[in-house]
């Protein structure tokens, strides 16, 4: 369901910057870094058309797996590519809608969510007459497949939404978001699907989970309705496969679901959190300080796990999101619609990280 966040890109991506540059010019190092982005160096664009997002490194750090809508594809499919952008290939079925892909330990298999068992076609988009909402398709199922996309098999089938799977860097567990018990909660299991555990249980959405590098903690995004009116609206929307994402906050918990702590506390949308390799800082995407609620800008921010030391990392006036570090902290990959050549395009970027 990080695809839920991806709908932010579709909803908020406004027209791109100068589309007259050549592909070579656009990919040149440091020409796409904005004032204030002191932590980025040698920034390079890896994709050049369509809506591309949620690019995550393989365990050997040589490949990225991501979701993309481009060319003949009408809704997201899963692709892999080398970290220099070469050898991009589709690794999902090409049917239905997919989201939230990740490599499994050893990089010979992948996990992702797809609706293709329900229909070959793309599912209908969100109904924005309900306000700014995201779809949580009940037809999403988790699939494991070979890294080339062959032999996809349903993983832990259940009624309702199943998506947002990521894998512990220690290689022993998978964490994901599921509606199998009626609400949208976070679950974890061993790589083979055994030892399934529900980690959250408060009414509301808990999702987008990632493990810390030592596997001891999970960082995630969350919205818990407080008033009776908010609770009823949440339940009504969820019954129609929708949620409102406007005030997600970042949380951290121990890997067994204990010691939950709220990290951010603001009136903005905060999502896509990921631990820095020091396991003390968290990078995330936020509309923090955006002045236009209808078309907010989203940037990358960093914060200490105790909620102190908030620092803005990117300074683009449209969308930067879905960050992930390499395990040595030397590189950062993220999605952005900076310097897009076509309206609504979002591309994958990689940069050297400067502490």
Write the layout of secondary structure elements.
Blueprint: H1 2-12, H2 23-27, E1 40-45, E2 51-57, E3 63-69, E4 77-82, E5 89-90, E6 98-103, E7 109-114, E8 134-135, E9 141-146, E10 153-154, E11 162-167, E12 173-178, E13 185-190, E14 197-198, E15 205-211, E16 217-223, H3 228-239, E17 242-243, E18 249-254, E19 261-262, E20 270-275, E21 281-286, E22 299-304, E23 311-312, E24 320-325, E25 331-336, E26 347-353
Antiparallel strand pairs: 1-26, 2-3, 3-4, 4-5, 6-7, 7-9, 8-17, 9-10, 11-12, 12-13, 13-14, 15-16, 16-18, 18-19, 20-21, 21-22, 22-23, 24-25, 25-26
Q: What are the secondary-structure elements, in order, as H or E?
A: HHEEEEEEEEEEEEEEEEHEEEEEEEEEE
On the 0 to 100 scale, the average pLDDT is 91
Largest sheet: 4 strands, antiparallel
CATH architecture label: 6 Propeller
Measured between the Cα atoms of the first and last residue, the distance is: 31 Å
CATH topology: Neuraminidase
Measured by DSSP, the beta-strand proportion falls in 35-45%
Main sheet strand line-up: 1-26-25-24
- Tally of separate helices: 3
Rg result: 18 Å
Number of domains: 1
Instruction: Give the oligomeric state of the chains in this entry, treating copies of one chain as homo and distinct chains as hetero.
Output: single chain
> Roughly how much helix do the residues carry, as a percent range?
under 10%
Residue runs with pLDDT of under 50 for 5 or more positions:
1-28
Shape: globular
Structural class: mainly beta
């Amino acid at each position: 369901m990080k695809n839920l966040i991806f709908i932010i890109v579709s909803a908020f991506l406004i027209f791109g910057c100068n589309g007259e540059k050549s592909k070579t010019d656009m990919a040149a190092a440091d020409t796409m870094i904005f004032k204030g982005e002191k932590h980025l160096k040698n920034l390079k664009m890896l994709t050049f058309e369509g809506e591309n997002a949620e690019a995550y490194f393989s365990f050997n750090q040589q490949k990225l797996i991501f979701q993309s809508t481009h060319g003949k594809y009408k809704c997201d499919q899963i692709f892999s590519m080398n970290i220099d952008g070469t050898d991009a290939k589709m690794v999902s079925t090409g049917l239905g809608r997919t989201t939230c892909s990740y490599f499994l330990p050893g990089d010979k298999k992948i996990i992702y969510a797809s609706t293709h068992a329900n229909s070959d076609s793309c599912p209908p988009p969100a109904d924005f007459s309900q306000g700014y909402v995201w779809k949580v398709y009940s037809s999403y199922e988790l699939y494991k497949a070979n890294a080339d996309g062959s032999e996809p098999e349903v993983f832990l089938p259940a009624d309702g939404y199943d998506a947002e799977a990521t894998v512990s860097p220690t290689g022993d567990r998978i964490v994901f978001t599921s509606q199998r018990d009626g609400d949208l909660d976070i679950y974890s299991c061993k790589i083979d699907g055994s030892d399934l555990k529900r980690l959250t249980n408060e009414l509301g959405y808990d999702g987008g989970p990632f493990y810390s590098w030592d596997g001891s903690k999970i960082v995630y995004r969350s919205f818990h309705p407080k008033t009776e009116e908010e609770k009823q609206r949440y339940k009504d929307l969820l019954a129609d496969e929708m949620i409102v994402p406007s005030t997600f906050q970042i949380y951290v918990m121990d890997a067994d679901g204990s010691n939950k702590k709220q990290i951010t506390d603001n009136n903005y949308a905060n999502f896509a959190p990921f631990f820095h390799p020091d396991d003390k800082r968290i990078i995330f995407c936020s509309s923090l300080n955006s002045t236009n609620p209808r078309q907010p800008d989203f940037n990358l921010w960093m914060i200490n796990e105790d909620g102190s030391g908030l620092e803005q990392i990117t300074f683009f006036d449209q969308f930067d999101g879905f960050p992930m570090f390499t395990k040595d902290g030397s590189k950062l990959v993220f999605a952005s619609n900076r310097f897009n050549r076509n309206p609504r395009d979002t591309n994958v970027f990689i940069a050297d990280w400067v502490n």
